[in-house]
Every structure is written in structure tokens, then in C-alpha cells.
């Protein structure tokens, strides 16, 4: 049985409501986690300057049922002859894939390195 989660609003880092509506299917696992990431960055530069707004968000997911909502608010403004770069980035690490790729030999090597 699929469980639908309706998110009516999220909050930015100051606690203000960021209005949007998402319909997320969690699948058969009602214990799936929904992570809402809403990074906010703004950069300004004068004439001939460079404005770079590049927030980095990292999400580490523990199960296949986990979901990420990524809603960046990024802007960059540069004066005449300048350059503006607004580029949000999201990195998602899936722990279940990392655990599957680790062999017993690799794990033993890691333990030896930690001890020394």
C-alpha cells in the first residue's frame, strides 16, 4: 500500500514559511524520511567584479524510501563588465549502495588503518 505525504510548506533557515506543495510517494515503507533542503544564497559585485553564490547541500540517505526536496533560492548580481555565477549544488549519498559495495577485504583494511 502506498502512503502519500503532502507537504504544504517548508521553512527557511529563519523560520519563515516557504510556500510550495509537494506530493511525495513513500511506497510501502511508512518510515521513509523526507528531507527538505532550501539553501539561500545571494552575492553582489560592483563594476568589473565577480559575484559567486554557490551553496552546497549534502544529503545522506539511509534507506531507499527516503526522499529529498531540494528548493534552492540563489541569486548573483554583478555590475557592468562583471561576472555573476549562481549555482546551487546537491550531493546525495546513498548509504545502502555504499554498504553493498564494501567487501569484507576492504572492511578489514579500514579497521587496520583505524587501529594504527
TrEMBL record:
InterPro entries: DUF4774 (IPR031942). Residues 33-88 form the DUF4774 domain. Residues 96-116 are annotated as: Disordered. It holds the Pfam family DUF4774. This is DUF4774 domain-containing protein.
